[in-house]
Structure formats: structure tokens, C-alpha cells
Known about the structure:
Blueprint: H1 3-24, E1 49-53, E2 57-62, E3 68-73, H2 78-81, E4 89-94, E5 99-101, H3 109-114, E6 120-123, H4 132-139, E7 144-145, E8 160-163, E9 174-176, H5 185-189, H6 192-198, H7 202-226, E10 233-240, E11 243-246, H8 250-258, E12 262-263, H9 266-269, E13 272-274, H10 278-288, E14 293-296, H11 308-314, H12 326-329, E15 333-335, E16 339-342, E17 347-349, H13 354-357, H14 359-370, E18 382-383, E19 391-392
Parallel strand pairs: 3-4, 5-6, 5-8, 6-7, 8-9, 10-12, 10-14, 14-15, 16-19
Antiparallel strand pairs: 1-2, 2-3, 10-11, 11-13, 15-18, 16-17
Helix pairs in contact: 6-7, 7-14
Amino acid sequence: MSSSSSVGLLQLLLWGCEVWLLMSCGIVNGDSSTVKTGDISKVEDAENFHIYYGQTFKVIKNAIDGRSYLLVQNTSRMASRTKYCSSRIKSFVIPISNYSVDTDLFPVSFFELLGLLGSMKGITSDSSVASACVLKLYQSGDIQLINSSSSDSQLELFAAHFTTHSDQPQACNFANFVPFQENTPLQIAEWIKFLGVFANVEARANQVYTAVKNNYLCLTNVAASKTKSFKPIVAWMEFYDGAWSFTQETLKLKYVEDAGGENVDNSINKMTYNISNPDDLEQLHAILCTVDVVIDGTYTTEPANYTQSTFLQNVNVEADNSSCFAFLTNQSLWRYDKRVQNSNVSVTLDWYDGGVSQPQLVLGDLIEALFPAANYTTTYFRNIAKGEGVVKIDAKMCDGDTSIAMEPIILPCQ
Length: 414
């Protein structure tokens, strides 16, 4: 073993001993005698990250990839003396002064809710952003476009680079943010606390998550009270390469249940139906005749052009021969692409951004789909049976101060 490797191993062992001693003394994990309670985030629902506290540092443990992030306060002596960069441990000096984001499937709305957009200085693509205010900052020159390669020298300019792609090569300032590995809406939403510790804004992260969680649970109770002798049957389905399939995603199934609906039978969820096969097509039509609500999640590069006619064509049904389908008769055919940033390069749905950080809005939309009200306007879902179109996101939609934290939208709940 080389001398440099020996030194690195010794540093790692010493750091491990320090954490163990602090935990033994009750300093880590939020002992009120040494750490202010208001500055602590406690993970309540998420399963894939944990936070530990010391007197001058914090540790985030990512349960998905086994990585740990040692966050050292910039006022401590450790900040100038400690630097780790291995496959398992990385260190950051906090609060981070600036950061960049790999925007591919990254919910930047978490940063908006925390009031941290002012510190965002780099994004890997403007076409994959569904935030009007991030687009505004990019177009004004406050955010620059950077190369997503970890070998690019641009990335070294940022105190942290956040990404959802944990399997790619990573530089020392990379931090893996992987909320989509969770199974439920609230578990995903709680990842706001993960980002909050990097900026010492735990109090804000706690406030936002508590508001979102309480509203979500209240809406769940309201939905449960609406269910009468039977629950509406929901088919959440997608069309790809000539075949239809029913969703098996735990998150989507959970949303339907929390909204007071019932998913199509599990044995059906495991099957696909090729519309070019007469037997498959007949079975698909038979199933669809039993459901009350359909959510069509078929991917398209032109959401504005995806209408009820597109759906009927994909299920091989003539418009004048659709009386069997209750969801068409009752006009309950939905898509979750109402809010979209459609560039010349790609199409990005706000469903994967704002819908991630504020699941109460998604739940409110689904309750409307299952139990229609006269005065509710959906945020992410559009009813293509009623001809509803898309809302195109652009920088002009950001009319507020981007340096101020965005408040979560709390839906009426009685």
C-alpha cells in the first residue's frame, strides 16, 4: 500500500472514530443540549436517506448507493482541515455558496420552495427544465449552461453539483439526489430536507414538508369520505410500440388509492395488449368497458396534439362505436401533461418537477377526476374527453422575486 493510501485510510478511520464518539456522547442525531432544535431536520417518512448531526458538522447517509456526505460548517476548524472524496464519502463546506444541477429529471421546484434559486448558477440543459423562474434566471444570464460531463472543468466552479443519476462518473462535488427511488408521494416530497441541510435551511424545509404532508393527509381523508358503496375503478395505462399496458408503478397506484379509487386487478396490471392481435384487442376492450376513469400516460413529443381522437385511434375504436366505455360517456379520460415546457429539443412535464415537491396538488387533481366538482381547476391533469389543452411553461410565467421562497399551495380541505 502506498504512503498516500495509508494516510487516506487513517483519515477515514479517524473520521469514523470521531462520528462514533459524538454519537456515544449524544451529540449526533440532534441532542438538544448541543444543537438548536430549530436547525434540525428529522426524517419521518422517507426510507432512503438519513441525517445525523454533530456540533460543527452534519452527515447525510444515502441508502440507495451507500454514499455519505460530510457537511462541515464553514465557521469550524474542520472546514479548512477536512476534505474527503472517495466512492463512499465526500465532504462539503456549508452553507454552499453556489451550486449547479443536472436538470435531466431533476425537480428544481424543491429549490424554489427553499428559496435557494439565487444560489443556482449552472444547469446542464434549459430544455429539460419545467420551472418558469429557472428559465427566467437562465435567460437573464444569472444561470449558465454547463457540460454534464464530470471531467468538464466548469463543474469545479461550483460548491456542489446535484444530480439524480447516481450511476454516472462523479467528481468530488457531486451529490446524488434520488427521491424517485422512494415508493410513496410523501416519501418523495420529504427529500426537500436532503437539500435543506446543504444550505442550513432545515427550518424552512421542515415547514414546507409539514404543510405539504398535512394537506395531503387531509385530502386523503376527504377522498375516503366520498367513497360510497363502491370505489371508482381507475385504469392508469400507457401505449408503446403498438401495445397497451397497465401501470405497475407503486407511486401511481398509491395516488389512485389515496384519491379514493380502486386500481384495475393486479393480474391485469401484469399483462400487455397488442392492438394488432385480435384476441388481445378484444380483451383490452372488455377490460376498458369495466372502468370508470382512464389516465392515459402515453409518451408523446407533442402533448398539445394528443387528444381523445388520438386515444381512440391507439385503442382501435371508432368514435361512434364507443358507447360501451363509461369513462368516455362520463367524460373521464385524463392525461398528466397539462403543464409542459416544449422546446425544439425535448418535451418536459411539470408532473416530474412541481408534481414531485407538491404531491397534494396531484392528489387534488385525482380526486377531481374521480369525484368531479364544479369549481375545481386541475394543476397537472387535463381532461382530453372534454378537449382540455396544455399550458406551455416559459420564462414570462415567472412574475415574482426569484430570491424569495415559493410558498406551497395548500388546497381547501374540509
